[in-house]
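Teaching note: in complex prediction, the entire set of molecules is handled at once rather than each chain in isolation. The prompt given to students was simply: 'Predict the structure of this complex.' The entities are:
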Amino acid sequence: DIVMTQSPDSLAVSLGERATINCKSSQSVLYSSNNKNYFAWYQQKPGQPPKLLIHWASTRGSGVPDRFSGSGSGTDFTLTISSLQAEDVAVYYCQQYYSPPYTFGQGTKLEIK
Amino acid sequence: QVQLQESGPGLVKPSETLSLTCTVSGGSIGNYYWSWIRQPAGKGLEWIGRILSSGSTNYNPFLRSRVTMSLDTSKNQFSLKLNSVTAADTAVYYCARSYGANDYWGQGTLVTVSS
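The expected output is the structure of the full assembly:
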């Protein structure tokens, strides 16, 4: 199985500041034939299902604000929130969909400082 | 707008079979993978498996011996069966549409394993 490791486990950022979450996979999730990273980020608020934020490592999901961005390739990925809003308080998960089982990271809890 | 809704018993006895159904509305079940993901209270997400509209499946090896997924295209539904459940299977179970990533999710249903 591909192991996904997020850092940090929790993060407190002031409103309007930048938040950065990292995810590392135990093997590359870059598919060489199409040069796509089979990697996603999700946001989960309490009592709600996860919401797709980013897929293919850097493509925003439908309706996702442009303050959310994804970067990285191969084994190292980053989710950046450029200017933290109050509604961004949530747990964020990464996931690889390169090879079943499609494993998730352990989650990063984002709070307001 | 695609919507998914899980249904099934909220309480299952140990050693029995957990059975859930996901009903898809606002779109056809064809041409996509459909997944089950679970989340124990206060913990992270665990991928259970997926089924393609053709019926082919991928299961998490951790659960493979106990899991069966199926679908009913006439009803636009897909299902999960997990047998020989224990307290460790207590979780919120989500169904989701998957083309790779999971873009549409159900609200989730809590299944408790207890006698």
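Point out the following to students. Chain A is about 0% helix and 50% strand. The first strand of chain A starts at residue 4 and ends at 7.
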